[in-house]
Design brief:
Layout lengths: L6 E4 L5 H12 L3 E6 L3 H13 L4 E5 L5 H14 L5 E4 L6 E2 L6 H25 L6 E8 L8 E2 H18 L4 E8 L30 H13 L7 E4 L7
Parallel strand pairs: 1-2, 1-4, 2-3, 4-6, 6-8, 8-9
Antiparallel strand pairs: 5-7
């Protein structure tokens, strides 16, 4: 697939990794739907940056925990930009909870945002595309799916891997579905970016360094341009999953 001119939806695209993914798509000539839940200012900044590259971009607000809003997001993107041809599921929530601590509300919220929303958006995308229109679905996952921990985050991320493989079969052959499992790319949101890495106590894996945003976006673009890879997990984690 040549991404130039394609309609791409990136969820959680206002900040951090999501913004980098949206910018890379804009730089490749995509017409980018920049989704956000609360960070409108950040999303509009992302839109402005994409527009400065000469590509079209529009911000879309939706709470992906709400089924109706997730479905209406896909409809709004199609109405304003065209059928979704590239779907990047980046939005996610993460609560550090143990088996004893996790509540039903946390459990349901994690499944709604981390698993159900990617499913609903892929389902909507499938209905929007014509029988001969190709598409790409790429979900951002976590290297910890190799060793699922942390209720309910870890379980929903493991479920997302299962969804990726099932969608790859269900949406074949016109749509390829893959996921990128990340290791240490950016410090957690509550840690200043300028804090020395030596103080973060992060296991960096065999590569012994943090990854770069460019390494994530390059992987995404590779999966978009390659039409033969599907149902696959690409680990961008410095080898942490093999330890």
């Amino acid at each position: 697939m040549d991404p130039n001119g394609k309609v791409a939806l990136v969820t959680g695209a206002g900040r951090r990794v999501g913004r980098s993914l949206a910018l890379a798509l804009g730089d490749a000539g995509c017409r980018v739907a920049v989704h956000y839940r609360q960070s409108e200012k950040d999303a509009q900044e992302t839109v402005a940056l994409i527009q400065s590259m000469g590509s079209e971009a529009i911000a879309f607000q939706a709470d992906l925990e709400d089924t109706k809003q997730a479905k209406s997001l896909a409809s709004s993107v199609s109405e304003q930009l065209g059928p979704i041809e590239i779907l990047v599921n980046n939005a996610s929530i993460f609560d550090k909870t143990s088996l004893e601590e996790v509540s039903i509300e946390q459990w349901d919220r994690h499944f709604a945002i981390n698993v159900r929303a990617p499913f609903l958006l892929a389902q909507a995308m499938q209905s929007q595309l014509t029988s001969d229109t190709p598409g790409k679905v790429i979900s951002l996952n976590d290297w910890r799916t190799a060793r699922p921990t942390r209720f309910a985050y870890g379980i929903t991320k493991t479920a997302l891997s299962g969804l990726t493989r099932t969608l790859a079969l269900s949406m074949a052959p016109k749509v390829q579905v893959n996921e990128i499992s990340l290791g240490a790319i950016l410090p957690p949101a509550d840690i200043p970016l300028d804090r020395p890495r030596s103080e973060m106590q992060i296991d960096l894996g065999p590569a012994d360094r943090m990854g770069s945003l460019n390494e994530v976006t390059d992987t995404m673009l590779m999966l978009i341009k390659n039409d033969f890879i599907t149902g696959e997990t690409i680990n961008v984690d410095g080898g942490r999953h093999i330890q």
